[in-house]
Design goal:
This protein has 274 residues and is α+β, with helices and mostly antiparallel strands. It has seven helices and ten strands. The chain binds a DNA duplex (12 and 12 nucleotides) through helix 6.
DNA sequence: TTCGTCCTGGTA
DNA sequence: TACCAGGACGAA
């Protein structure tokens, strides 16, 4: 569910409240989201204070000691919400980190595809190596994108979703980026000319930046660090807009199934021919 | 590269 | 009641 803009929003929301906070207790309500097990997790986390909080791809990474990281992935329906008290009812709570100031960091996750891990920086580095470049970083140039796309010959849409190719893009922002670049989701990745790569590069930057400015896209599950929905769902051109008119040409937005997931596109603006 | 799978609930 | 869902991994 949460893609780069959603995770970025959560991290920015939580950072000022979590800096320097200690974990004084842990409540586990569903073992599945904690592969380490509660006892090992407790021994690694209790008494540690959070010194940094950042995002990489769709991961939330908290430094809890010199060489120890708490790594959270929200999966499809995960939420990380900070509450000053536990009176507010939250559904699907799987784990709670109790902080030294009495606040609770709640991990809720309806479908339980997300998880929490604790690892050393070396272990994280090995994971990090297998993730593609951050699309909003300076390192993500048109030439870098061109090289990444050239290395794959399959349909471009699933390539954009592949975290080993580019970090942080999910189904929403992939569809929106392809629409904005006027590229059909089934175009072979290595068939784009330089002008098309340029369009895609600027479309990816623009759609992700817009998503962050709008504090994420909420259809049902996503909430920010305070438990509030985002607003980017009101700015989507194609994602989940099947049957509605294209904003550029008025044609009916279509949906097709690609690599097991929905792709939304305008059949006129996003022609499959080069 | 594609498919199935992990899960649960909302919606048509 | 069937279908759909924003992710990621491993197997074929």
């Amino acid at each position: 569910m949460p893609e780069l803009p959603e995770v970025e929003t959560i991290v920015n929301d939580l950072r000022p409240y979590l800096m320097g906070r200690y974990v004084v207790d842990v409540s586990l309500l569903d073992a599945k989201i904690l592969p380490l097990g509660l006892d090992a997790f407790r021994s690694l986390v209790l008494g540690r204070s959070i010194s940094t909080l950042k995002r990489r791809a769709k991961y939330i990474i908290a430094n809890i000691a010199d060489d120890l990281l708490l790594v959270v992935h929200l999966g499809m329906t995960g939420r990380l919400i900070l509450r000053a008290n536990s009176n507010k009812e939250e559904r699907f709570v799987r784990l709670v980190l109790h902080l030294d100031n009495g606040w609770h960091l709640i991990y809720a996750d309806q479908r339980k595809f997300g998880h929490l891990e604790v690892m050393t920086s070396a272990e994280w580095a090995r994971r990090d190596e297998r993730i593609g470049p951050e699309p909003l970083s300076d390192a993500f140039t048109v030439n870098v994108l061109a090289g990444l796309l050239q290395a794959h010959k399959g349909a471009i849409k699933p390539i954009l979703l592949n975290q080993r190719v580019i970090a942080g893009i999910g189904n929403i922002y992939a569809d929106e980026s392809l629409y904005e670049a006027r590229l059909h989701p089934e175009r072979p990745s290595n068939s784009l000319n330089l002008e098309e790569v340029r369009r895609l590069h600027s479309a990816i930057s623009a759609t992700l930046a817009r998503g962050i400015n709008n504090r994420g896209t909420t259809f049902s599950d996503y909430r920010d660090g305070q438990g509030r929905p985002g607003a980017n769902q009101n700015s989507l051109a194609v994602y989940r807009q099947e049957g509605k008119p294209c904003l550029m040409c008025g044609a009916s937005i279509k949906r097709l199934r690609l690599a097991g997931r929905s792709s939304h596109y305008c059949p006129v603006c996003q022609e499959s021919e080069t």
